[in-house]
Write the structure tokens for this entry.
Amino acid sequence: MLDFMEEERKVEYIELIYDLIFVHTLSRCGSLLNLENGAPDVSAYTAFLLFSIGCLEIWYLSVLFINRFPQFPKQRNLCIFINMYLLYYLAGGIRDDWPNYYAQIHVAAAVILLHLAFQYWFALRKASGYKTYKEYMEKEPYLLVVEAAIVLASIPVFARTGIVLSPLAIVVSIGAGVGGQKDKKLHVDFPHLAERVMLYVVFSFGEMIVELSGFFDEGITLEGISHSLLAFAFASGLFLNYGYVYDHIIDRDRKSLGDSYYLFIHMFLIISLNYLTQVMEMLRNPTADSDFKIMSLSAWVLAYVLFLSLLERYAKERAGQRYYLRLIQFTAGYIFLLIATRWYPVMNFAMSVGYVYCVNLSLRLFRERKLAAKET
């Protein structure tokens, strides 16, 4: 194990501030989902997904670097502040007319990637003990340079043809990250990683809670109280599910070797939360298409539960067949009730709230069964 990963460490304040900039950037991505004829058009939806994945990919790479090389605080803090400024610059171009800001967005992204490549190059030559992992680690800066080159090359390609080439860089990065799970040579400080990711998820829930304030503008009416109560219960249920998994299911003390899959799962978990935040805004928008609202709500609730379930890989104990059978039953019932009440949006929202708490019940029953088995 690398010498700088032997002692337990906590997430530092500057890392939290850095993550807040990503929360801001993700909220800018959500603003792309403007309603056209009751629903976002395909191009807006695609832009939302690609920008969200691209921004979280930068977050993914930054978190892994800070996790692996914490022993240069002055250089690290300077680099974080530089990346903060670049992220603000990138976020400024994420707007409805983003094609006019294509160069701004992609130059900022490319400079961040090159900056991360330089940080790896510097750390690999200064960190004691890195030679044990030289074969794996020295590939990282070159991979980042390749991604930056793709992003920069996409600028003239887009200007001449209108083709967006930059998602290829995301494919290269995610492919390398997930493929790297087979390489067990590089240690990751999992307790630090889990805490850092948990705090980012909390920030995402904070963004959702802020959006809830709009539901209380409807006044003291039956509809207004119903919407605000359901929205509050929904956000609370999502938060309780993640909190329960983090506190009671995930083995945060595990020793992790070359494992960035945890971050990969959370990238899409966070995107699910970000989109559900936008859906909650749509639910109280009378111009939004009812069918689109319900389909979006149900699809992204199911996506959230799916990615939450994938975290079982990091559980202290595996859930087993009974837990997944119960979860499948709840999910099938949820889908059936959605179809049965599809003409009543408030009922659909209520069904989604009920499903979220049924998932929480499944998690609690799973843990109680495991504890009872241990006692006997």
Observations:
- Confidence is low (pLDDT under 50) at residues 1-5.
